[in-house]
Amino acid sequence: MSEALLAVTDLVAGYEGPVVGPLSFDLRAGEVVALTGPNGAGKSTVLRALTGQARRLGGAVWRAPGVTLAYQAQQAPELGEVPLRARELLGLHGAYRCQALPNRLKRLLGSRIDRLSGGQRQLFLVWAAMLHPGNLLLLDEPTNNLDTDGEQLLADALRALPPERGALVISHEPEFLRQVAHRVVEVRPA
Amino acid sequence: MNVDLLFDPLFRVPLAVGLLLSLLLPLLGLYLRLRQEWLAALGFAHLAGAGGVLASLAGLPVLLLALLVAGAGVLAQGLLRRPSNDVYACMILLGWSVMLLGASFSHHAQLLGQALVDGQLYFAGLDHLVGAVLFAIVTALALPFLSRRLLRIRLFPGQDQANGAPVRALGLLFNGLVAVGVGLGATAIGVMAAFALMFVPAWIAFALAPGWRPAVVLAMVLGLVAYVLAFATAMLLDLPFGPVCVAWLVAMTPLRLIPRR
Lengths: 190, 261
Known about the structure:
Chain A is α/β, with parallel strands linked by helices. Chain A contains six helices and eight strands. Chain B is mainly alpha-helical.
């Protein structure tokens, strides 16, 4: 059996008060686990609790020693004007393995990220997380703004995840989740 | 018009102080703009100005108290947990009020307040030069460490925090650098010139530069060019340095309109 990366037990999470939980699940290396549930169920809050941006109000989160996180937030930051090339964006994560990038992104490596389309920028943000050296990947609605090709590229990349990495994915795209997820965890509001 | 004035040994220290600041302030301005906190420059500058005037009233070293008060602004901002432009607007109002009220209490404080508004670079002394050199060294050491982290915090919110990085402490450290830079700048070249050096070159570089490193180079070059032009103009035409420096920087702003590829 593959090594456990994360174990969440009876987690209750929120901000001023509880938003989600209690929720229990675990994630092993080589696995892709999907968090599903209706809007407002608290799926993003679960990821934000794992990254320290939301409060853990109850339960326990265990992370295997040495596990680091690669996180793609649900909402890309409002960038405005930023003189940063896509190549520099990936480099911020130490993601220099640009040969692993899809060709459609390689062509854009020299472009400023604020001059890319919303979908192109989203693809780079998702790929920055994919290329991050962290072994636990947290993707919050990575298919937002992506066209069909972009979704397929991402699904292919997640299916080819190295055996030492695991991914926790939130998405409202059933077909995408059917392609990538080994297990589905239903999230319910507190 | 006396061209020899430009090379007068009397003005070598102010020239050197200004040269260092004209490179460092635009550099910090880039990161302030990245963090959408460019108003911080004006906030800290006004606090530094207020500190300078209070020092004059209390008979304390002007530069030291200016830096301390600007530093207190950084701490207050950190404690409030509200790194928003609202806080910096309050700093501007508080600093402006204290600076002008304080200046009304003594002739010496009034002169200093006027110098802070006018930006009379020629009064910058050895303390400013030592401060600027030390500040340049600290910035050169700290910024390579901070740069990638500041960019990451802005572009990948939550990523560094997820792995336990002290995100708030990094923000405070950066704002501490800004406060020192602005404190030095406000007392050496005036409140508004220090702000303009932080704001305008970064604003132009954000529009024109094809990437982050070119933006760093462009902002520093623009700051340096504006400073040298302002120094020469102010000396040759016997004008107050601060407004001349601001005018040159404002004259550069149409560069933003250069068509980009």
